[in-house]
Amino acid sequence: xxxxxxxxxxxxxxxxxxxxxxxxxxxxxxxxxxxxxxxxxxxxxxxxxxxxxxxxxxxxxxxxxxxxxxxxxxxxxxxxxxxxxxxxxxxxxxxxxxxxxxxxxxxxxxxxxxxxxxxxxxxxxxxxxxxxxxxxxxxxxxxxxxxxxxxxxxxxxxxxxxxxxxxxxxxxxxxxxxxxxxxxxxxxxxxxxxxxxxxxxxxxxxxxxxxxxxxxxxxxxxxxxxxxxxxxxxxxxxxxxxxxxxxxxxxxxxxxxxxxxxxxxxxxxxxxxxxxxxxxxxxxxxxxxxxxxxxxxxxxxxxxxxxxxxxxxxxxxxxxxxxxxxxxxxxxxxxxxxxxxxxxxxxxxxxxxxxxxxxxxxxxxxxxxxxxxxxxxxxxxxx
Amino acid sequence: xxxxxxxxxxxxxxxxxxxxxxxxxxxxxxxxxxxxxxxxxxxxxxxxxxxxxxxxxxxxxxxxxxxxxxxxxxxxxxxxxxxxxxxxxxxxxxxxxxxxxxxxxxxxxxxxxxxxxxxxxxxxxxxxxxxxxxxxxxxxxxxxxxxxxxxxxxxxxxxxxxxxxxxxxxxxxxxxxxxxxxxxxxxxxxxxxxxxxxxxxxxxxxxxxxxxxxxxxxxxxxxxxxxxxxxxxxxxxxxxxxxxxxxxxxxxxxxxxxxxxxxxxxxxxxxxxxxxxxxxxxxxxxxxxxxxxxxxxxxxxxxxxxxxxxxxxxxxxxxxxxxxxxxxxxxxxxxxxxxxxxxxxxxxxxxxxxxxxxxxxxxxxxxxxxxxxxxxxxxxxxx
Lengths: 383, 383
Fold this sequence. Notes:
Chain A is mostly helical. Chain A has helices at about 5-30, 40-45, 45-50, 55-65, 70-95, 105-110, 110-125, 125-135, 140-170, 175-200, 205-235, 235-240, 245-250, 255-265, 265-275, 285-300, 305-310, 325-335, 340-355, 365-380, and strands at about 100, 105.
């Protein structure tokens, strides 16, 4: 990451917004509840971990650079953060992720049942401030914001369904077009499109500027996700907070992988697809135990009598990804220049977003400056 | 079940409402979508299985017996059915349930990731008709309905959190008071309170009658859940559609169990609590394999060399409930007269609900008749 001179402004702006939003969330989530520690207390777990708070900051900056007030937009911005964290909890369950923001995921700490329910509770609680908006902003604006949030939640579920259908169909030859559609739904909508549109709605801008905001947001969303994919392969472990290289182990569909598969030799593609179809190994459990029993049998340590009783209980031997497999993918991506390709694809979009931002308003402000720096930051960030 | 002479009216009323609601849901859920078969198609899976459609029927009957129109209430009633089924999908994941309405649960068919995401998608989609209500009913009424649905979703999550905290805390000595609070949140709110309140809101009744509806609904909800618990122990397998006796295997907190534990001897209570603390056995998997390996070792079939390599991979031997354990619980419940006790508790509430229903309106209608018969049906139904 090149240390841009104005990175301080970004950090400060994010930190300030995050403080406001956390105050709002603390006021929204009941503090000492009678429903066991397993509902409201856990709703603040992810939001309180070290995080950028990007989405509410984007929402607040958009609103304020267009003449809206902090007071008018804060409830909606906090709601976006609550939605974001509810999605993260459910996504972590769905992806079987181990770590989130440097700590174990919620379902690793409290089990899948609690994690699913806490996410549901957050989605329910998030409606409260959106309904309170009617008093603050009037019925019409409050409903337009609700409509936007409803669309955002649907788009996220659609994006997630697309990705899950690729995993389940073991469909690894995903085209760039598919990748961009999935990212538009899964990342852009809730990270940029909804935050910027809601900022614009609160600031009361006309439909044409709402559309311009939508275009800018879609560009930033894709650039942001591509950078996320790049960091997964190239970041420094300490700064990253997630599992480095985890995307290759999981066979996640990224622009990088799509490019490598589209440009490599037929033989390499064949081998890569074979690797991608294999699941990542599980740390321990039945499959490991089964594999060890099969080894003992092969070595002749287990005789017929013992093995015949164990055999019906063994897990099917499924080939799993090996470190060699993943190293092959990493080399392929390197050799095809796919990371550089993805960097260019992100940079092009970030620059277009930056140019369009200049058309948004002529009034200079720290809020507009933040958004402009952000369009550089999305492709230069280290975490 | 005693075949009440008017059971035909109930069946017919339910069937008619269900047909309207399914039409509404089919119009709401996109038919052939591009998001793989794993989102919108699956949203209709549970709703299309054989089901009573109780919640929308209660909502429609309440609205119409108070002078509201079918057209005015239908969108909201359909939304309740969508919420109900989304909760069922997530509940089945959280409870690890195998069957729902005579067929495998959604996560058994398509995996936990897809099931969690489909539920989230349904919760997002459910906001659409509630927002369309603004055109149909005006802003004020539409917002009051949204507020009620938001409260309903929160109450459900709180009820689920209560139950999960009991399971995780292995707290089996749950008092009646706790049971009733959990049921109020987990069952009554989304099965009766929200449907009846929304029916009343659409029919434009005054606040005092909304409160009366709330009282009736809370009584019916508890009676309904108690009957559910009774059926789990006494129903005929064919009519039931769920796993008979599953509550005892799962150690579910029911009024029946609370009564048995509160009234039995100290020795029986001790033994019962010991049984309840044990998990139910898993069908296959690592624990079964581990147990078989320990047996082989005990029988001397496995020698030191083989066992020493397998031992670090074995699951901790955890005692699981046995058929004898569950038979003991069933006998205890029988001996303490706990089922009869629960039947009385349900009947008292159903009768009170029936008396209060007579105060709701003086205008006779098939809709009021349905609600009156329903308050008998909740404690006499066989499924």
